[in-house]
Write a structure and sequence with these properties.
Blueprint (H helix, E strand, L loop, with lengths): L4 E8 L7 H17 L4 E3 L17 H17 L6 E10 L2 E10 L2 E7 L25 E4 L2 E4 L3 E5 L3 E7 L9 H7 L4 E6 L1 E2 L4 H15 L3 E6 L11 E2 L2 E5 L2 E5 L8 E8 H10 L1 H11 L6 E5 L23 H26 L4 E4 L4 H16 L7 E5 L7 H14 L2 E4 L3 H11 L8 H22 L2 E4 L3 H6 L12 E2 L9 H9 L4 H11 L20 H5 L2 H14 L3 H11 L6 H17 L1 H4 L33
Parallel strand pairs: 1-2, 2-3, 8-17, 9-10, 10-12, 18-19, 18-21, 19-20, 21-22
Antiparallel strand pairs: 1-16, 3-4, 4-5, 6-7, 8-9, 11-13, 12-14, 14-15
């Protein structure tokens, strides 16, 4: 299948001012190297064939003619390549000089896109030589006996990619041409630039590009003029940057006198999926139809990348920031959102007490930490937190001790209610053999615990806080009308892979005794503890041995919901992300199980209690995810 990846390159070869013959040779050398690596879109700097800093030499007809001859030479030398190439040059049309991007593929000249906004301040004097593309009166130009489109053009490659070109200052205009192009369907914007290398300029440009690619839901490929430009009054940056959806994917250094480049594979399918879901983007696009003229679409050839050519780094844990500083900031924000949600609910219900089932596991530990934070904000005493530990047939000494010690350290109340006698009686009532450790055996315990918590909440006039997390809801790993139910779910938007980091973040702020308990909770295997322990008294029922690793399921969930990614592509991405951890057969096995469980469990999500959304992925049936409970998943099966 076409994975929807496009390989792009921003190139900044060494330039010689007013030497088109040398410049085109330098460009061709770099283009051929990139083309051999199956690069599909190649971008060179603004006015590269002439050099940006020619000054009044732009008035010399000899320079303009040599640029045109160099363009024809480039067409001839790149006719065996499949790359779509953008290169900057001066072009005379109807006695006006334009700063344009020439666009070519396989030796064919596809069009010229003129610069719209000419910079005429801070040492730039472009209006002295060039005319804005807004003033262009014709839509074609004759080049070597061929009529070539000129003006507002978009270049369509295959089913997924539409490329628009703007030039340098266009990016910084309040309403840039690329924003309009994005509204017209462009999902890759290329920028041919010539940028002064002054203090902080590079960081400013990166900020603009990130913001631009984020709000326009596009990839952005930026190639700036070489250090070979004139240094009469300033130095030029040979910055090359590739960004997508608000993130820099690749960038070059800018302090070396040599050719520069930034190459990246960008996933256009997930960019398109983001646009599909964003109604403001569609509404804004329709508004633009009334203000701006039409763009002509130029069809280009597209050869999809082979899997071996897709050189990408895939984040194995998309819900967990890699950078420690960013991760800690993220954890702080998540905990704040969770506690604020609970604080508002308690204020609204006028309840000053909270009930929570505590097990010594990750989820109930996080819930307790969130409750503690909310109670402090509400200036309520910690003893108003009623923690209930309910030993069952699978409870082990380690988890029991951790839960008891943690409650004590927090200063909350602890109540212990042994559910085993009630469960034995109930199984006798319904005629179930207690030695048969099946779903009935397990769910009897889960529902008994929920019954206790609900009734205790009524008795104490307290709010029952649910502990189930986002990953469990995705997999349906909860007992319907058991741990599935509460009065408010503080963890319902938190994926399992993030929870250890949230607890670890809190542990750093706690005393050493509490921190030790929290770290032990993190290192305890995930388990519902519904089946009896092994002969050594250790946890016998490990969740991830039954349903697969949560890090895989969170990865599947992220790509499935965030981008609507097809299973084959999710598998491909997972194999890249987890190549050192899991074999491809394991990934396929757990992906198949994820999809089966996800579709089969919608009925549980359809009647979820209220809960907190903390990130971009949520399964709330009221806001973020609406799916019929009886939808077929046949087309998603392998």
């Amino acid at each position: 299948m076409d994975m929807g990846f496009i390989k792009v390159a921003a190139l900044s070869p060494v330039v010689e001012v007013a030497n088109p013959v040398k410049n085109v040779q330098n460009a061709v050398d770099e283009i051929l190297v990139a083309a051999k690596e199956n690069t599909q879109v190649i971008v060179l700097p603004e006015l590269f064939l002439s050099g940006y800093t020619c000054g009044d030499l732009f008035f010399q007809s000899k320079l303009i003619a040599e640029c045109k001859k160099s363009l024809l030479y480039m067409l001839e030398k790149t006719k065996e390549t499949n790359s779509l190439i953008f290169v900057g040059m001066p072009l005379c049309v109807e006695n006006c000089l334009y700063n344009v991007s020439a666009v070519m593929q396989k030796g064919n000249l596809l069009g010229f896109v003129p610069k719209t906004y000419l910079k005429n301040d801070s040492g730039f004097f472009e209006k002295r030589w060039f005319t804005s593309g807004k003033n262009l009166k014709t839509n074609s130009v004759l080049i070597s006996d061929k009529i070539v489109p000129v003006g507002r053009l978009l270049f369509k490659m295959g089913d997924n990619a539409v490329i628009g070109a703007e030039i340098c200052e266009d990016l910084f205009a309040p309403v840039s041409p690329s924003t309009i192009m994005a509204m017209k369907g462009a999902n890759i914007i290329v920028n041919l630039s010539a940028t002064q290398n002054i203090v902080s300029k590079y960081e400013q440009i990166k900020d603009f590009i990130k913001q631009h690619s984020a709000k326009d839901y596009c990839a952005y490929v930026f190639a700036s003029g070489s250090v070979g430009e004139s240094t009469t009054d300033c130095v030029f940056s040979n910055a090359c940057i590739v960004a997508k959806n608000g993130k820099i994917i690749n960038q070059s250094k800018t302090d070396e006198f040599r050719a520069n480049k930034a190459v990246a594979c960008i996933d256009i399918q997930n960019t398109n999926s983001q646009r599909l879901k964003n109604t403001s983007f569609k509404d804004n696009a329709s508004d633009c139809d009334d203000i701006f003229g039409e763009y002509r679409i130029i069809e280009c050839e597209m050869i999809p990348l082979d899997k071996k050519d897709i050189d990408i780094e895939v984040d194995a844990h998309p819900f967990v920031p890699k950078d420690l500083e960013k991760r800690e900031k993220h954890c702080k924000e998540v905990l704040s959102v969770q506690s604020l949600g609970l604080e508002k609910r308690m204020k609204h219900t006028k309840m000053e007490k909270v009930i929570v089932g505590i097990s010594g596991g990750l989820d109930s530990t996080l819930a307790l930490l969130v409750i503690e934070k909310a109670m402090k904000k509400l200036s309520l005493p910690m003893e108003n937190i009623i923690c209930v530990t309910m030993p069952g047939f699978g409870t082990t000494g380690q988890t029991y001790k951790n839960s008891v010690d943690l409650v004590s350290n927090v200063g909350a109340q602890l109540r212990e209610i042994d559910i085993r006698p009630a469960c034995i009686l109930h199984m006798e009532d319904i005629g179930h053999d207690i030695n048969i450790h099946d779903t009935t055996y397990e769910n009897t315990q889960a529902r008994q615990r929920t019954q206790i918590l609900m009734n205790l909440a009524n008795k104490e006039r307290a709010l029952l806080v649910g502990t189930g997390d986002l990953s469990e809801l995705a997999l349906g790993w909860c007992t319907y009308n058991g741990d599935h139910m509460s009065m408010y779910g503080v963890n319902s938007g938190v994926p399992k892979t993030l929870i250890p980091h949230l607890i670890e973040y809190v542990a750093k702020e706690m005393n050493s005794n509490t921190a030790k308990i929290l770290l032990d909770v993190i290192n305890t295997p995930v388990s519902p503890e519904l089946l009896p322990p092994n002969k050594n008294g250790e946890i016998n029922q490990k969740t991830e041995e039954q349903i697969g690793p949560y890090e895989l399921h969170d990865f599947f969930l992220y790509h499935f919901l965030q981008f609507g990614t097809e299973p084959e592509k999710i598998s491909f991405l997972a194999q890249r992300a987890f190549k050192k951890s899991y074999k491809s057969e394991e990934i396929e096995k757990w992906l198949d199980l994820f999809l089966k469980r996800f579709f089969a469990s919608q009925f549980k999500r359809s009647c979820l209690p209220d809960g907190v959304k903390v990130g971009s992925v949520s399964l709330s049936p009221r806001s973020d995810f609406k799916m019929p409970s009886d939808a077929s998943f046949n087309i998603w099966q392998a």
